[in-house]
Design goal:
By secondary structure, the protein is of the alpha+beta class. It is built from 3 helices and 7 strands, in the order E-H-E-E-E-H-H-E-E-E.
């Protein structure tokens, strides 16, 4: 059947599945996305715990992921407006913590700069 446009099925509505759907749709290909969960987002979805909405996507939506941020812009979602960015901080039991340096101490990749936070 030459001349007919293909229909594509995308299995999974996480970031990868939705990125594939956007790419195909931009090429004029009809797309249907199938997701087994009741919510979209895959591992990066929002979860509700005891009435509090929690973002389960911290591992995906960090500023270092340039392609993720570019994909957001591509579909009209401005990450500068939608994401609340904060300096990286790790806090451990017993009071020990680490924090990424910011301001004039800002580091560039690949050098990892961590300072012991008080």
């Amino acid at each position: 059947m030459s001349g007919t446009k293909p229909n594509m099925a995308i299995i999974g509505a996480g970031w990868a599945g939705m990125a594939a759907a956007v790419e195909l749709a931009e090429r004029g290909i009809a797309v249907t996305v199938f997701e087994a969960s009741r919510s979209l987002g895959g591992r990066a979805r929002r979860v509700d715990a005891e009435g509090i909405a929690l973002d389960n996507g911290q591992h995906i939506l960090i500023g270092a992921y340039a392609e993720t941020l570019a994909q957001m812009r591509r579909v009209g979602a401005d990450p500068d407006r939608l994401l609340q960015r904060r300096p990286l901080q790790l806090r451990y039991a017993g009071g020990f913590s680490l924090a990424a340096l910011t301001g004039r101490h800002r580091c560039t990749w690949p050098r990892l700069c961590l300072a012991r936070a008080g």
